[in-house]
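User: I'll paste a sequence; please echo it back and then give the predicted structure.

Assistant: Echoing your sequence first, then the prediction.
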Amino acid sequence: MTSKRKCQASIHDINDTDCDYWFGLSRESKIFKRQDVELMHEQGYIKRTDRGYICERCLDEILPEHQYSITRRKQKPEAPKAENDSADPSKDCDLSLEIAKIKECIEPLIRKDVTQLYKDGKPTLDQLVQYSAKEWLQNRPKQLIELMKSLCGDDILTDDKKCYHLAKTVEQLYYLRNSRLILPLSFREGILLYSFTYSKQAITLQCKTAPSSSYSTINRYLAEEASEPVLMPPGSIRVAFDNNQVIGKTYMIKGDNKVPTSVMTSTSYSKLSDSNIEEKVSLNQNSGCGEI
């Protein structure tokens, strides 16, 4: 292994850069005796101003009979060298071939799936209500799911929490392929976040990191769903509505003063079991009021 340290000995071969042991000249008293250092100075092996390092090979040649080697082995025992796969070019080549095979097998399937999901557009309301992470994953490429199982464990499809996390991971992977995707799990989270916060900043922050769509898209989606007419079943129906108004407060008196106002109307429809309720005389609006 090539070292960035430089041997200060005058006899050092500049092409020799793979020495295992180096000795600091500023700490020579801990490794060898002072008279030996003076001997190296007097014979010109090292300069008195040197504060760098001297390699093991040069030290062995200058002081072949010295006790420093025993001291060195006591201070720094040689650790067993672990196998380093990256040091073997053939293993790196094999790993690259295996990665290329996995890519060749899975990448076309992911590209096709991402393209189809993009064409499908936003999930419908029924799809959001009936969403199941496990069912959604079953419609993804089997090779991709098997790869994720081998990396994360076989129980990722049986454990509900892990299945949710896996669906989130796959959505993030697809989002890297196409940042314009709107996928159901992230979209559901975006609508839930909006319903709790009504914050544009929160939705904008989320859509920058997940396929959950923008603030304007969520607003438009909810408005479109609310504008669809409700199909009335035959028979008697009871309709109820409620107006919630929130009016801001201001203590400033001036012409054309304005305050923020929020009005929300909720309606509910329920079908009655008795379809002939209008024919009942007791429920007639004139009943109890006397004869007209």
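The chain has three domains: 1-80, 88-226, 232-274. The first strand starts at residue 22 and ends at 24.
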